[in-house]
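It is worth pausing here to work through a concrete case rather than discussing structure prediction in the abstract. The textbook approach is simple: state the sequence, then state the predicted structure, then interpret. We follow exactly that order.
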Amino acid sequence: MSQIEVFNPFTGERVFSQPSETFEAMCRRIDDAQKAARAWRKLDPTQRAEQIQAALDYFRLHRDAIAGA
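Step two, the predicted structure:
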């Protein structure tokens, strides 16, 4: 398995490194994203707004834990 590495172009310092996914895993992720997009499309604007507000509430409530991750 290969590594995905991101470097700061100014300093050359590596700022991120993570093992890459397999081709099959990426295909599954793409399929899952397409299914989620189809489900999202079926929601009316009010339902979408409620989902976004719930996500925002979650992030606000857990911001310290998220920032520390």
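Step three, interpretation. Residues 23-42 form the longest helix (20 residues). The mean pLDDT is 95.
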